[in-house]
Amino acid sequence: MFKMICPPFLKKGDKIGIVAPARKISNDELIASFEIIRNYGYEPVYTVDLFASDNQYAGNDAIRALELQQMIDDDAIKAIMFARGGYGSVRIIDKIDFSKFVAVPKWLIGYSDITVFHSHVSRNFGIQTLHATMPINFNENVDTALESLFNELLGSPEILEFESNSLNKIGNTEGILTGGNLSVLYSLLGSCSFPETDGKILFLEDLDEYLYHIDRMMLGLKRAGKLENLAGLLIGGMTKMNDNDIPFGKTAEEIIREAVDEYDYPVYFGFPAGHIENNMALVMGREVSIIYDQQKNVYSLR
């Protein structure tokens, strides 16, 4: 199996660049998170443009792209943490020159709208990235979520256990992990940023979507051939789903299970990652195993 490139792990005292590629954010929203980063032994680095504003964005496209480009090209920055998601990453992805990043990889950290970067980097450069909580969420995260983020940066991954679910299609599997936010992935279909899924374990999560649209997106991925040849499907938080006055009649999890029911690979629901307090870190591009423990009726990802 093709092994993707793992960026160097961090050492205490390393500098972590903070950028906002999508929705705007204020200094007040990040002060506590900067202190948490320092308490874990790292130095957060950012410029005044982190707090730029252009309607809903953290500055216009040119400002946001330049902020990220500078962090990518700065040898002193050992990892890049995206301050928040929202919407906007797809507007700048094609403006970024990744040549220095490919020569000197560093961890890109975030989730939700940051799926754009996870997917683009995986598809085009074969470099691992870190799907994990972001500074905007630090105050609401439980300790285990923060610890999993910083443990991964140190190169100390954890075995992640999660309970069985009645919708699961039971089985063990292994493969390279890919995916992220379902809505963002759906928006990337047909582009050079959509990740390869054949033989991979696909992770999906989402927030604040209508149930009919979950169905639309799953069928879109299915009809595009992106669900047929997976090694496994791993579902995280399907959080704060919406319905219409006339109910759709299924939960998000039931919609997903129905879309892939004809396939033979295992399907796992309820993994602790996504728009939840216990948003555990996942390395996109890492080869992982998912093992079912029948006695304990739990799964472990390692």
What does this structure look like?
With about 300 residues, the protein is of the alpha/beta class. The protein has two domains: about 15-155, 3-Layer(aba) Sandwich (Rossmann fold); about 160-300, LD-carboxypeptidase A C-terminal domain-like (Glucose Oxidase, domain 1, 3-Layer(bba) Sandwich), CATH 3.50.30.60. It contains nine helices and 13 strands. Strands 6-13-12-7-8-9-10 form a seven-stranded mixed sheet. Helix 5 links the parallel strand 4 (about 105-110) and strand 5 (about 130). Helix 8 packs parallel to helix 9. It starts with 14 loop residues before the first strand and ends with a strand. The model has no long low-confidence stretch (mean pLDDT about 95).
List the helices and strands and how they pair.
Elements: E1 15-19, H1 27-39, E2 43-45, H2 61-73, E3 77-82, H3 89-92, H4 99-103, E4 107-110, H5 115-125, E5 129-131, H6 143-154, E6 160-163, E7 173-181, H7 182-188, E8 201-207, H8 211-223, E9 232-239, H9 252-260, E10 267-268, E11 282-284, E12 287-293, E13 298-301
Parallel strand pairs: 1-2, 1-3, 3-4, 4-5, 7-8, 8-9, 9-10
Antiparallel strand pairs: 5-11, 6-13, 7-12, 12-13
Helix pairs in contact: 8-9
Entry summary:
This protein has 302 residues and is of the alpha/beta class.
Quick tags:
alpha/beta, 302 residues, 13 strands, Glucose Oxidase, domain 1, single chain, 9 helices, six-stranded mixed β-sheet, Rossmann fold, seven-stranded mixed β-sheet
